[in-house]
Design a protein that fits this description.
The structure is a homodimer of 181-residue chains. Chain A folds into two domains: 35 residues, Ubiquitin Ligase Nedd4, Chain: W (Single Sheet); 141 residues, Nucleoside Triphosphate Pyrophosphohydrolase. Helix content of chain A is 16%, strand content 36%. Chain A contains two helices and eleven strands; from the N terminus they run E-E-E-E-E-E-E-H-E-E-E-H-E. In chain A, strand 2 and strand 3 form a beta hairpin. The first copy, chain A, starts with 10 loop residues before the first strand and ends in an 8-residue tail after the last strand. Chains A and B meet through helix 1 and strand 8 of A and helix 1 and strand 8 of B. The complex binds zinc ion (2 copies). The site of one zinc ion (ZN) has 8 residues of chain A, from loops. Chains A, B: This is ADP-ribose pyrophosphatase YjhB, NUDIX family. Chains A, B: Its cofactor is Mg(2+). Chains A, B: Keywords: Hydrolase.
Chain lengths: 181, 181
Amino acid sequence: MKYCSNCSATVVLMIPEGDSLPRYVCSTCNIIHYQNPKMVVGCIPEWEDKILLCKRAIEPRKGWWTLPAGFMENNETLAQAAARETLEEANARVEIGDLYAVYSLPHISQVYFIFRAKLLDLDFKPGIESLEVKLVSEQEMPWEEMAFRVIHDPLKHYFKERNQGKFDLHVDVINKAQNAP
Amino acid sequence: MKYCSNCSATVVLMIPEGDSLPRYVCSTCNIIHYQNPKMVVGCIPEWEDKILLCKRAIEPRKGWWTLPAGFMENNETLAQAAARETLEEANARVEIGDLYAVYSLPHISQVYFIFRAKLLDLDFKPGIESLEVKLVSEQEMPWEEMAFRVIHDPLKHYFKERNQGKFDLHVDVINKAQNAP
Ligand SMILES: [Zn+2]
Ligand SMILES: [Zn+2]
């Protein structure tokens, strides 16, 4: 950030009075431009014993597998964001179920939210950000080709707990050193 | 948003190619300035059969009661944010426990996260954003003076479930029409 989005003057990085962290503050209109972490929301679309995966058509990790997930928009709920992303990336309709995983990624200032979901029909096809969309069983999971650890890890929990017959919420942290897939 | 924070040219509100929502796009450097919902993170600090409440020293709802909670910062985890806000608003040290409530407020593009937490000592006092900080039992709860429905409702669940001996995660939505305290 170099310029004030309110008045176009230059901003300076400084700790405002009464604050404890440096912020971008406008040199002219004095507005403080706070920067906040972003939410990434997705789901595990379930159909019988399979789940729906997407092969990424975009960088980073183009050609690797992931769940339908993306940045939450203003004026929607977490569940609406998860359903919208699934429609956009896999042209798939889902009924969003329980929240299953909440992972903080502090090094990139993101928090991931993964819901369980019921896939409502088989009329799915790749959206513009996907090369391929397919249903896979546990035996068919491409564990070595998963794009992101923040997707890989909840899915490991998911299949283990599905076999045990009980799902628990996972609240966890992935730090930089661990984030390589 | 009127000006580009990257180059100071004017921005225009338009739907970028391949997108479906209007965004602020720079008329000169073409950067798209996305706007995303914000996370508010707090906790229920527990001490024996009491919890710690804060009386707000700032608007909105100055003089009304709430839990320690505030906007999540970049480069922290959800649990770190909850502990930091509790230290800032109540000068209180807590050990953050289970995630207890996740409420989407789509009309103001916020998502609230409330953890259960263990208060570690009784050496608390009001921070700069609080007029008063005190431990209250269920019988002493100022239900009619709670600042926000998004705090009031999880606390109603909390005391009910505490009496029943089992806590469950609450994922819910508060819409505009319901948001008045
Ligand atoms: Zn300015
Ligand atoms: Zn620009």
